[in-house]
Amino acid sequence: MIFQRLEVSAFRNLTSVSLTPTAGLNILEGNNGSGKTSLIEAVYMLAMARSFRTHKSARVIQHGEDHLLLFAQLSDGASHRLGLQRYSDSRMQIKLDAEVVRSRSELARFLPLQLITPESIQLITGSPGERRQYLDWMMFHVEPTFQACWSQYQRYLRQRNALLRERRLGELLSWSQGLVEQGLKLDQFRRQTINRLKPHLQHYLDELIPGTSVDISYRQGWRSDLTLEEALWASHEADLSQKYTTVGPHRADLMMRSGEQRVIEIFSRGQLKLLLCALKLAQLEYLKELTGKAPIVLVDDLPAELDYEHRSQLLTLLHGLHNQIFVTTTDRSHLDYSAWNDVKVFHVEHGNIKEVV
Description:
Elements: E1 2-11, E2 14-19, E3 25-29, H1 36-48, E4 67-75, E5 79-87, E6 92-96, E7 99-100, H2 104-110, E8 113-116, H3 122-125, H4 128-142, H5 146-166, H6 172-208, E9 215-219, H7 228-234, H8 236-242, E10 253-258, E11 261-262, H9 263-266, H10 269-291, E12 296-299, H11 308-319, E13 325-329, E14 343-349, E15 352-356
Parallel strand pairs: 3-13, 3-14, 8-12, 12-13
Antiparallel strand pairs: 1-2, 1-4, 4-5, 5-6, 6-7, 9-10, 10-11, 14-15
Helix pairs in contact: 4-6, 4-10, 5-6, 6-10
């Protein structure tokens, strides 16, 4: 899937902009505060129906306006039209080829997207939820039954937690059985994903951090010497005390070690950023191998914390994946994009965007 045309209206400081991206590398160049990240955010919102910068999406509507409008013409061999309107009263309407899109998952499946920002380092340094999302994104796009399994598991988990809060113990067994059934499926999906991902990750680690070994392993969210059913029974008193389910796939984590130590304890900030890039590239290659899909890639502030050599290397590796890429920078001379033949540069200033010819 590629953007052939993109229009943004009343989104942050972007009053009315229109651009025709290339299918390859699109460089958004401008000073800080010029609107580069706002354009990346608008593309993200068009694909995900939410912002990556704020949980309150109404805040992205330009001051003095009651709604924003995003529109794109896209192609995956066939031509598609995608539009999103977001109103200040929280209403939102999304249409794909004149049909109303009913759910975010429907939209995300149509337009897979990867985002790399300076904050993406939270995948490594942040909470286990960040790493579960990393795994679940791949399963969502690869495994047809994953979404239903994940939704059912969340439903059983919410209900079980409600029963624990209300101490309605007589109903706990049936909901626990459903939780175990869907939880084991979810756990198996994740294990398969990690095993398939590892060779891709090692390939990109060898390219970006040669000579450095990183082992990723899956912590399932309950004691390894117990079945999930046994773990729930063993945690019964703790669950009642805490008033929520303390074990299960919703407590899982992806561990990253180099030798005997966690990478966050021994890697420099630059090494962690390179590990992040390797993890993201491995995701892209994994998805392409299993589905043939090439997600849109958004990279905000690529030069941050990477030296010129590694920035160049990352762009070359992205070139090999044949995705449509949007990259922001304050100065394109900071980037070596000589590997790319298909490049467009857009200058962003005070919310206006012009193609550099």
